[in-house]
Structures are given as structure tokens and as C-alpha cells.
Automatic annotation (TrEMBL):
Transmembrane segments: none annotated. InterPro entries: OMP_efflux, T1SS_OMP_TolC, TolC-like. Residues 1-26 form the signal peptide. It comes from Ancylobacter oerskovii. This is TolC family outer membrane protein. Keywords: Cell outer membrane, Coiled coil, Membrane, Signal, Transmembrane, Transmembrane beta strand, Transport. Belongs to the outer membrane factor (OMF) (TC 1.B.17) family. It is found in: Cell outer membrane. It comes from the Bacteria. Residues 124-214 form a coiled coil.
């Protein structure tokens, strides 16, 4: 069960940062919400998925084209030369005639499908299901990007705090080294004690360099996800009020709302429609065709014609008998793909359930780790003070002091890490149940609505310009 209320609020007073909170809370500091807003607006992966969603919207008007007539215009112009030989019948041989004209024509053809075995109707249903599934994939990408942004933000905070701790640790070791050298100068300790202090300083310098490199890496990842440069980050806080009250409730919510599951279910609907589209290849097709044309300056049966006009309307029925067997292979293929999509629903359900349990456990573990780390920090602070006092009167060695200082640093570092894990786990739990979104987080951002573009293009008959909507 999740612990709530004053206990957690009290331990959060420690804040994420040790020695860094004062700087982080300064004016004009970046907040976690600002990072999430920037990621929502500017993350390339999310914007790419939005473009893919808009492209998928076009599958519906493409399918609807099967209900609409097809109109073609034609025109031609050329030169015609005709030579004719005629027997005079008088015994005087034949007569040759030559004709040269410049024939031209214009025409229009209209074709309207009346019945196609419900291929168009099922194509539209399949396209609509694909659009809905793509929207769920977009929502899933939004969750991933927001979780990545929260994680990157907390990683910068964590590494900033660890750099500060490393600096404090180095300063403490340097002070121990100074004291050791002074005591060695008056003969109170041995050269070994000084060497141990020097080794601790050297090790602290090395780990500080490593921590600084980790901070630079975290800053680069933060920019990659949010398109912001990390500067004076304010402490991040968990989002417990938005989470389910229990693990069972979280699992139930994830199985019913997670976009990965919903997208897989829409893929099943699309697969069912695709089977019917494939089966339509075995059905007869009925079309109505109309033609009209005008011809100019041509010959008909040897006689010149200045202009001729023709028109025709036909009702054509095409009944497939055998088409090489490819139609049957397409039907079998679409049925297997439908079976695969049904299996994918179960795969996604299992994955969502596993993720919910994993992140819920990580959240509980992070809370326990914070309590343990706080107790460890308090105990190690008392222990360090005691060891130093005993060292001054000769009851402890320099190595004892150095070990106590290292133990205190490790406890503080564990507390920083646990606090970072606490915040990230809360966002991960909300993502695992399918509810991590700009709307749920109440971010101050213009929410992207994929329905706007869909409504703009669904019934468009003509036009090549992309709509001005989202």
C-alpha cells in the first residue's frame, strides 16, 4: 500500500538536493512543469508521431473515394492523309484521289461503381479503425515523451546534487588532510595516516570528475527530450494524488485505459474489415459508365465529316471466375493477420500488467528507501561527530575518520537517489496505467487535438493543400 499524508511531506522537507535547494528555488528557476510543457510542444519524436497521425487520417477519404464517380477528359489532334483508288468501270483504268485533313476530338468519360461486394464500405470501416488506433499510438508516444522528460529532469537534479555532495566531500577530506599534516608535523600521528588522507582526497577528486561528466550527460539528454538547457532546476515533486489507491486498482485501470491495449484492439477491428475487403474480390462488380465525345475534320467511309458527336451510357457487370489464385491467397493472408492482431492484444495486456506491478513496486521501494536513507544520514552524522572527537584525543585513527566521512557521503547520496527514484516512479506508475498526459497533469499548454485535422480532410473531395488545422 502507498503511504500518504504528513509522513511523506515531512521527509520531503529534506528536498531532493543537499546543498542545492537554495539555488534551485531562486527566481527564474526552471520547473518540472515547464520542462514537460516544452517536451509536449517541441519534442521531435512527438511531433513526428503527430505528423504520422495526420497522414493516417487521409486513409479515410482515400477509402471514401470508392463511393464517388471517376471523371476523365480526353483530347486529341493530328494530321490524316488518305489516298483512294477507284475503278472507273469504263476500261480506262482507275482514278486516284488524295485527301488530307487535321482531325481532332474532345471527350469525357464518367464511371460510377454501383456495387463492389461491399469492398468500399469495409475499406472505410478499416480506415476509420486505423485512424483510431493511430490516435492511441499518438497518446502512447505522448506518455513516453512526458515520462522521458520527467526522468531527464530528475536525472539532472540528482546529478547536480551528487556533484555538490562530491564537492562537499572533497572539501571535508581536504580539511582532514590539512589536520593530519599538522598533527604529523608535531609527531602525534604517523606518515601512514597522512598517506591515507591523501589517498582519500585523490579518490574524491576522481569521483567529482566522474560526477561532473554524468551531470553533463544528463544535461544533454534533458535538452534532447525537452529542447531546453538545464539551468537552476527547481525541486521536483511526486504526483501521488493522481495515482490509483491500490495496486489492484492500478492494474484494472491499466488494462482498461492504456493506449497500447486500445491501439491493439482497433487493429483487430481493422483486420476484420481487411478480411471482408479481400473477400470482395470474389464478388461481382456493377458499374455505370457514360461517354460523350466530339470529333472534327475526319473521314468516315471515305467521306469527309466536318463534325461528329457521340454519346453512350452502359451498365457493366463483371463476374470474377478465376483470377490466378491470388485473390484466395490474399484472403488467407488477411485472416492470418487478423489472428496475429488478436494475439497482440493479449501480448499488450500482459506487458501493461507487468509494467504496472513493476513501477508500483519501484514506487513503494523508493518510499522505503527514503526512510532508510534519512535514518542512515542522521546516524552517520552523529557517528562522524563522535569519531572526530575521539580522533582529537587519540582514541581513533585517521582512517576511522575517513571511513566515517565516506559512510556519511554514501548515505546522503543514497537519499538523493531515493528521492529521485520516488518522483520518477510516480510518473512511471501514471504512465503504466495509461493516464500520463498533458491534460491529466494540467499543463499550461495548447492541447493537440487530432480530431481537428481528421474533420478537415474526411469529406474533402478536392484540394492538394494541407489544412491549416492541427
Amino acid at each position: 500500500m502507498m503511504r500518504s499524508g504528513s509522513g511523506w511531506q515531512h521527509c520531503w522537507v529534506v528536498l531532493l538536493l543537499v546543498g542545492y535547494a537554495a539555488t534551485a528555488s531562486a527566481a527564474r528557476s526552471q520547473t518540472l512543469d515547464q520542462a514537460l510543457v516544452s517536451a509536449y510542444d517541441a519534442n521531435p519524436s512527438l511531433n513526428s508521431q503527430r505528423a504520422a497521425t495526420r497522414a493516417t487520417d487521409e486513409y479515410v477519404p482515400i477509402a471514401l473515394g470508392g463511393y464517388r464517380p471517376q471523371v476523365f477528359g480526353s483530347a486529341s489532334i493530328g494530321t490524316q492523309w488518305v489516298e483512294g483508288r477507284y475503278n472507273t468501270g469504263t476500261g480506262n483504268g482507275s482514278v486516284t484521289s488524295h485527301y488530307k485533313t487535321d482531325p481532332s476530338s474532345i471527350g469525357i468519360t464518367i464511371s460510377q461503381t454501383i456495387y463492389d461486394g461491399l469492398k468500399t464500405a469495409n475499406s472505410v470501416r478499416g480506415a476509420e479503425s486505423q485512424v483510431k488506433g493511430q490516435r492511441e499510438l499518438l497518446r502512447n508516444t505522448e506518455q513516453t515523451v512526458l515520462l522521458d522528460a520527467a526522468t531527464a529532469y530528475m536525472n539532472v537534479l540528482q546529478n547536480s546534487a551528487l556533484v555538490d555532495l562530491r564537492k562537499q566531500n572533497l572539501a571535508a577530506f581536504q580539511e582532514e588532510l590539512r589536520s593530519a599534516r599538522e598533527r604529523f608535523a608535531v609527531g602525534e600521528i604517523t606518515r601512514t595516516d597522512v598517506a591515507q588522507a591523501e589517498a582519500s582526497v585523490a579518490n574524491a577528486q576522481s569521483t567529482l570528475a566522474e560526477a561532473t561528466a554524468n551531470l553533463n550527460t544528463a544535461g544533454a539528454v534533458f535538452f534532447q527530450v525537452t529542447r531546453l538547457k538545464a539551468s537552476k532546476l527547481a525541486p521536483g515533486r511526486p504526483i501521488d494524488p493522481m495515482l490509483p489507491k491500490s495496486l489492484d486498482a492500478a492494474v484494472a485501470m491499466g488494462l482498461s485505459r492504456h493506449p497500447a491495449i486500445l491501439a491493439a484492439q482497433y487493429a483487430v477491428d481493422q483486420g476484420q474489415a481487411n478480411v471482408k475487403v479481400s473477400e470482395a474480390a470474389l464478388s461481382p462488380t456493377l458499374t455505370l459508365n457514360g461517354e460523350a465525345a466530339s470529333q472534327y475534320n475526319y473521314y468516315d467511309d471515305g467521306d469527309p465529316v466536318a463534325r461528329g458527336t457521340s454519346a453512350a451510357a452502359t451498365l457493366n457487370l463483371s463476374v470474377p471466375i478465376y483470377q490466378g489464385g491470388s485473390e484466395f491467397a490474399n484472403i488467407r493472408e488477411s485472416k492470418e493477420l487478423l489472428s496475429q492482431s488478436r494475439i497482440e492484444v493479449d501480448v499488450n495486456r500482459d506487458q501493461v500488467r507487468a509494467n504496472v506491478v513493476q513501477y508500483w513496486g519501484a514506487l513503494v521501494a523508493a518510499k522505503d528507501a527514503i526512510e532508510s536513507a534519512q535514518a542512515s544520514v542522521a546516524a552517520n552524522e552523529i557517528a562522524l561527530r563522535g569519531v572526530r572527537q575521539e580522533w582529537r584525543v587519540g582514541q581513533r585513527t585517521t582512517l576511522d575518520v575517513l571511513n566515517a566521512q565516506t559512510a556519511l557521503f554514501d548515505a546522503r547520496a543514497s537519499l538523493v537517489t531515493a528521492q529521485r527514484d520516488r518522483v520518477v516512479a510516480s510518473y512511471a506508475v501514471l504512465s503504466s496505467v495509461g493516464e500520463l498526459s498533458a491534460t491529466r497533469l494540467k499543463l499550461k499548454v495548447a492541447t493537440y487535438n487530432p480530431k481537428i485535422h481528421y474533420n478537415q480532410v474526411r469529406d474533402a473531395w478536392i484540394g492538394v493543400r494541407t489544412p491549416g488545422g492541427q
